[in-house]
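Handout for the seminar on molecular recognition.
Each group receives one record of this type.
Step one: identify the two inputs.
Step two: read the structure output and locate the region that could contact zinc ion.
Step three: write two sentences on what you found, then compare them with the reference statements printed after the record.
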Amino acid sequence: MKCKKCGANDAEVYLAYSNLKLCPECFMLLAERKVRNTIETYKMLSKNDNIGIAVSGGKDSATLAYILSRSFEKIPMTLIYIDLGIPDYSQHCLEKVKELSKIIDRDLIVYSLEKELGFRIPDFKSTIYGRKMCSACGTVKRYLFNKITYDLGLTKIATGHNLDDTVEAIFNSYMEGNVGALVRLKPVLPKTHPKMMPKIKPLICLTDMECLLYATYRNLPIRMLECQFAKRSRTIRRKEVLNLLADKIPSFKHTFISSHYRRILPLLEKALGGQSVGDEMGIFDCPVCGMPTSLRSMPCHFCKIVSLLKRKA
Ligand code: AMP
Ligand code: FES
Ligand code: ZN
């Protein structure tokens, strides 16, 4: 079977949602075009930007860094890796992001939790987060993406959240009725406070499988280990359920996300009057660290879980 685009090479990739069979070269060009279109549609980048790219050692952020770096050569970009101190895993990922930084010729900043803050993610085992390590880890990462971007004087931060990640997160927010989280799950989160840095998700148009194929065909360095705390997490199980749906209805994920952004989100935002989206009315300064938080007169989530950890130590 020949590639449906070029008609010359053998097709290796089948994209069920658009019924396309492509050769690796045409697939990579398509993936790159999709990311550039997403960036344009949502006005994610401008020529005065100086961005941070959060790289984890995984397939998504490697794909992200490679496509951004190649497509926007003139925009300054710095790779940011947070060393979470997870035995074996964090060191393994660090080696991958170092390699990636060499390949794309962009600087890498390594932020070590242990060196900078005196703790590691596994230390949360002794707290109420013991069984919800990923949740504590998520809070730490989100806080640091913002703080590092701010401290380095960068204009925004890009993360490798892809289509599957976003569909899963939207689905979960629906399930829990968490409207506040639902309206924050946007491709672009603008600056709504002097210390709240804009966040962009340029891979929102690519599936898990597309990111894996892209990273593999480009031969990008990606981790071979799984985080020991992620095994059979709820996120993974929800993704499996959504994949079953996509097996039956190939366009399911794409339709779900586009209906959400085009039809439901605007109505939700209107109904909420912007309050939960994180405008000035709903953002306060954390009395402990001074960074923005949605909690009035209370330490931010990050400061809360870190103080919990210090009390247990
Ligand atoms: P995850 O929360 O693990 O699904 O990762 C989502 C995105 O967050 C990745 O695609 C990266 O852009 C970023 N990320 C995750 N872990 C790290 C890390 N240790 N250092 C820097 N960025 C990360
Ligand atoms: Fe955060 Fe595994 S990478 S808990
Ligand atoms: Zn704080």
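Reference statements: DSSP finds eleven helices and ten strands in the chain. The pocket of adenosine monophosphate (ligand 1) is lined by residues 54-56, 58, 60-61, 80-82, 84, 141, 159-161, 165 (CB under 6 Å).
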